[in-house]
Amino acid sequence: MSVAKITEISASSKKSFEDAMQKGIKKANETLDNIEGAWVQDLKVTCKDGKIDEYRAMMKVTFVLR
After folding, report:
1. Alpha-carbon gap, residue 25 to 6, rounded angstroms
2. CB neighbours of 26 closer than 8 A, spacing ≥ 6?
3. What is the pTM assigned to this prediction?
4. Closest listed residue to residue 38, CA positions, set 8, 1, 2
């Protein structure tokens, strides 16, 4: 039997949503072991001067406890 835990993270990128998600998972992997997956809960952008300035991804990351 395994037990999993979920933690919420927010990541951002100037490039794209995909880049924000990649950066978020990479950073989470530095402190969390056994990451199994992530649910992208929300996507949003910030704007400046009528253009997209930053892409943001809010994710729920699932990892297995040992």
Report:
1. 13
2. none
3. 0.89
4. 8
